[in-house]
């Protein structure tokens, strides 16, 4: 199953994206919405993004979020118990079998692969 969706990264778009991905497993929906939330928090509210979700040949589902800022790279943080942020990539790191960033000249794509077999 393949999915591609262009949207503006806004708080309203997060539940809408989760709803559009309802045919996918929970971990896939959670990773996709965490990646959108990272764009909102670190690139800016209203940033245009493209979300792609597809099955791989190895029984995984790949989630990709592309935004137009190649400089704002994700960083895995170790949030304290009382921190109000900093857990998004830790959650992604825990759920995904692997994740990374593909940096382009005018964009970047943050991706992860979730086991779904």
Automatic annotation (TrEMBL):
A Pfam cross-reference name = HATPase_c_2
Checking SUPFAM superfamilies in the record gives:
ATPase domain of HSP90 chaperone/DNA topoisomerase II/histidine kinase (SSF55874)
Q: What does the UniProt keyword field contain?
A: ATP-binding, Kinase, Nucleotide-binding, Serine/threonine-protein kinase, Transferase
Q: Where is each Histidine kinase/HSP90-like ATPase domain found?
A: 26-110
Q: Which InterPro entries does this one have?
A: Anti-sigma-factor_SerPK, HATPase_C_sf, HATPase_dom
Annotated PANTHER family:
ANTI-SIGMA-F FACTOR RSBW, ANTI-SIGMA-F FACTOR RSBW-RELATED
Query: What's the name of the protein?
Result: ATP-binding protein
Q: Which organism is it from?
A: Streptomyces roseirectus
